[in-house]
Amino acid sequence: GKPRALHSAVARSSSVAMATAGALPVRSLARPASGPLCVGEQRRPRLSAPEPARPGSPVAQSPASVQNKTVAEEPPPSPQQEEAEPQCTYNAERVIGNGTFGIVYSAHIVETDETVAIKKVFVDRRYRNRELHLWREMRHPNIVTLKHAFYTSGDSPDELYLNMVMEFVPETVYCVMKRYAKQKMSVPKILVQLYTYQTCRALAHLHVSNVIHRDIKPQNLLVDAGRGHVLKLCDFGSATRSGQSRPTLVAYICSRYYRAPELIFGATNYNTAVDLWSTGCVLAEMIRGRPLFPGENGVDQLVEIVKVLGTPSHREIIAMNQQFFNFDSPSFEARSWDTVFRKGIDPEAIKLLSALLQYDPEARILPLEGCAHTFFDDLRDEHTRCPEGHQLPADLFNLTHREQRTCPQSLRERLIPSWFARAPASPQVAAVGSADESPTVR
What we know:
six-stranded antiparallel β-sheet, Transferase(Phosphotransferase), domain 1, alpha+beta, Phosphorylase Kinase, domain 1, disordered C terminus, three-stranded antiparallel β-sheet, single chain, 2 domains
């Protein structure tokens, strides 16, 4: 039938076929004459899941005391970090996450009795760590705070690990969805609104600095139900700046369901819009209770997208990748969203979803425009509460200095409810925004 013909048509395309193995084309990289490459742009040893349990592993010693060190190789911290850079002893407690290039574990600071999370990644001394560099710049209420960074040695003298200490946030959007699914319940609408709004706000902060996160997924959206379901974006291991010459496309595996179609079409000049597509996929998953585009590989991923959104037009294909001319596919009409989701879905949620899941990257709604969408009007009602009865996060509408500078007055009036505009500003958020760099919009 037509689905099989579509699958064959996609597979015949050489650009998409390269993505079948779960990875996009990756160029071979040589060190430029002007300086070192970023650590994210070369092959590194895999830190597998069993490693924390191996006797003698620096992470495996639980509890393990690790003395914070000042490291000459790293650039000096920002003034905000320098203020809070004491000598600390960290007792590792348990592994809370692991991936291809790193391990995350919770730890206890002996001197302050504080619980933190520490991300440990392998370091190649020839390369600069891009994640640390970008993360230090990104200070925002909806981005997990980087507190300190220090190095530890591995099993051999040549092994060096960078440990990035961040605030500990107890849950992820993925865990929240799993919990409701286990109870055969849908994620409450107010949580879908809260999580999507805060994700858009975090992306607005990144994108104004031309930073692409490149790995938006439920596992990278941390939430704290005890603080009004405040959301914090984490994991800058795949992040890069747009506008740099031909950024390397990261081989996503777990993140395949959230991959923008221009990446599947082999684009290498993509921009911040890939994060907006991923946000739409997360929004749909929270509403639906399961991934919207569950492809098994690169080819299958595009097939799943086309089966829902219809066959992209020639103009949309060129918008995704100007070098792509050989997509010969049977024509599919877009499905009605009523056939994708259960009955009773807020039509405003569907409108926002449609604005995010556009084939043309430039047609996707921008993050702050998304925050002003009518789908979030419930959040702007001062009587709205979380499912547990708690108030919403205190800083939900408290714009940072950077947000205020880059947000037109007309948009600001739609974003900030009148009752909040009359309330005094939070000094903490004002301080967070004061270190922002000058903006550049997409």
